[in-house]
């Protein structure tokens, strides 16, 4: 049965081959050639279709990657031509490769960065608590001594020439190293992989960051005003805007676009700038981290934008500050000064600052635990012996709190209604059981935009995207693992703040002033 079935299946094939053998040689050759041509045509068409499909996939992947690190949910449509013409938040990518930052809700291990940047493998060294604290104190002491030595070196230099002015080319504090050559290269330390920077950074912010991080240093000067600490200012080769140059002529401090160099221990200034922009407050000056071969042994230093409008009467006259005691500040909060643009009564005791500015300042200072503005005497938490308020004896003034003077309340000379957050020295090592709630005392409203960011659970994602732009700061904090630890602290404080808002019935309102 099986043999007969196989015979019937093979019978057509055998009959065809028998007929093919009886054909003349010329006809057989023609049939074979026709079959080969048909087969060749089929193969070529299949190869062409595969190659076209692969090209389409490659183009699609290229466009998707060109959108870079910041996927702003614009779909697959190209950038709007209007944005290209106006230049609104449109930047030129500084890197061609792409780095992806992955987020995990529960991180058992530090998240990895895929791309060309490979973090160095370092062995963990176990240290006791006392040894770790001693090391930290010794390191801080070394940095402070370096800063003092730098100032003395600048003083010796200035005694030879013009007062307070040093020519960068003749500066020989430390020989030029590879860190100086890095600033002259075409690769910027501000990493932007997309045509658009994060939406919370304006084009002016990106421009200022690139200047502070990459501008060639032409001149440096150390200037002092009154009893305040002296500032180390550098002047870059690119000129500033017309407005900045106008204010610079008033101060006689900077002839073009300049930056202010701080000590390496003040790296919180960079984190504070990005946190301010992510929350939508926009009250800090742009800040980046940068290495100078002739300062602090090449360690990364925070560099802030120089703003001469903070000195309306000249640098010698000092900053444009608001004089208020704690009692007067609490009274102004109750009166809601300048709310709805209504002028306060002459005898009300109101300052020139708008009521909403105090809410923004309190929220910002609470997340970073900055006490040098609203709580100079450290009355709202348990200070340590090494804190400035204890060393200078201010903590003893807490018995008479109403007469404690607020400090570092600064505004621009032409804009007295809005504050400028400077000297943003925050503390990440303060536990949740020792937070300074005095910073929130008297606050009845908070800005809706900032609170919505805290509630949306996207604070980590946005801070990672924003801080990643500053390559020097990112690497100085230990990469992704170190940045995650800092954000962990801010997220815990944000959770405490949201609980405080619900418990005290604080209103969350729009503050567009």
Automatic annotation (TrEMBL):
Gene Ontology CC entries for this record: Golgi apparatus
InterPro entries: FAM198
Keywords for the protein's UniProt record, in alphabetical order: Golgi apparatus, Membrane, Transmembrane, Transmembrane helix
Localization (cell): Endomembrane system; Golgi apparatus
Keyword Transmembrane helix among record annotations: yes
Pfam families in alphabetical order: FAM198
Main location per the UniProt record: membrane
Residue stretches of biased makeup (Basic and acidic residues): 142-151, 159-168
Family to which the UniProt record says this protein belongs: Belongs to the GASK family.
Identification of the protein by name: Golgi associated kinase 1B
UniProt lineage: Eukaryota, Metazoa, Chordata, Craniata, Vertebrata
């Amino acid at each position: 049965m099986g043999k007969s079935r196989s015979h019937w299946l093979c019978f057509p094939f055998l009959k065809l081959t028998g007929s093919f053998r009886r054909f003349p040689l010329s006809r057989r050759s023609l049939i074979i050639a026709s079959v080969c041509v048909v087969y060749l045509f089929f193969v070529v068409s299949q190869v062409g279709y595969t190659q076209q499909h692969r090209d389409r996939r490659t183009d699609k992947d290229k466009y998707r990657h060109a959108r870079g690190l910041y996927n702003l949910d614009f779909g697959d449509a190209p950038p709007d031509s209007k944005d290209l013409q106006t230049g609104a938040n449109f930047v030129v990518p500084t890197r061609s490769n792409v780095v992806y930052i992955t987020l995990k809700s529960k991180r058992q291990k530090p998240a990895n960065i895929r791309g060309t940047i490979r973090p160095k493998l370092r062995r963990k060294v176990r240290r006791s608590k006392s040894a770790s604290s001693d090391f930290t104190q010794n390191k801080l002491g070394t940095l402070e001594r370096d800063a003092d030595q730098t100032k003395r070196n600048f003083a010796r230099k200035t005694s030879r020439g013009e007062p307070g002015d040093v020519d960068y080319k003749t500066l020989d504090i430390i020989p030029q190293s590879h860190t100086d050559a890095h600033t002259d290269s075409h690769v910027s330390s501000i990493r932007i992989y997309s045509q658009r920077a994060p939406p919370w950074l304006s084009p002016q912010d990106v421009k200022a960051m690139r200047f502070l991080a990459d501008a060639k240093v032409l001149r440096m000067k150390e200037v002092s005003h009154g009893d305040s600490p002296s500032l180390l200012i550098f002047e870059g080769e690119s000129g500033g805007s017309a407005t900045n140059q106008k204010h610079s002529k008033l101060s006689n401090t900077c002839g073009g676009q300049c930056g202010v160099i701080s000590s390496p221990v003040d790296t919180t200034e960079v984190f504070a700038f990005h946190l301010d922009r992510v929350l939508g407050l926009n009250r800090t000056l742009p800040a980046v981290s940068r290495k100078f071969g002739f300062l602090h042994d090449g360690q990364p230093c925070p560099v802030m934008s120089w703003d001469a409008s903070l000195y309306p009467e000249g640098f010698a006259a000092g900053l444009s500050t608001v004089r208020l005691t704690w009692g007067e500040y609490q009274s102004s909060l109750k009166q809601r000064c300048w709310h709805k643009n209504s002028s306060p009564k002459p005898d009300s005791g109101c300052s020139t600052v708008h009521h909403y500015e105090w809410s923004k300042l309190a929220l910002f200072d609470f997340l970073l635990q900055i006490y040098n503005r609203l709580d100079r005497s450290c009355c709202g938490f348990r200070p340590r012996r090494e804190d400035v308020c204890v060393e200078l004896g201010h903590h003893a003034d807490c018995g008479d709190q109403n007469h404690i003077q607020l400090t570092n309340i600064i505004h621009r000379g032409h804009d007295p209604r809005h504050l400028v957050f400077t000297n943003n020295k925050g503390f990440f090592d303060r536990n949740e059981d020792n937070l300074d709630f005095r910073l929130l005392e008297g606050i009845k409203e908070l800005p809706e935009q900032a609170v919505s960011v805290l509630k949306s659970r996207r604070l980590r994602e946005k801070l990672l995207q924003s801080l990643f732009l500053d390559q020097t700061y990112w690497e100085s904090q230990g990469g992704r693992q170190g940045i995650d630890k800092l954000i962990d602290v801010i997220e815990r404080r944000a959770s405490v703040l949201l609980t405080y808002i619900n418990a005290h019935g604080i209103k969350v309102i729009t503050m567009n002033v």
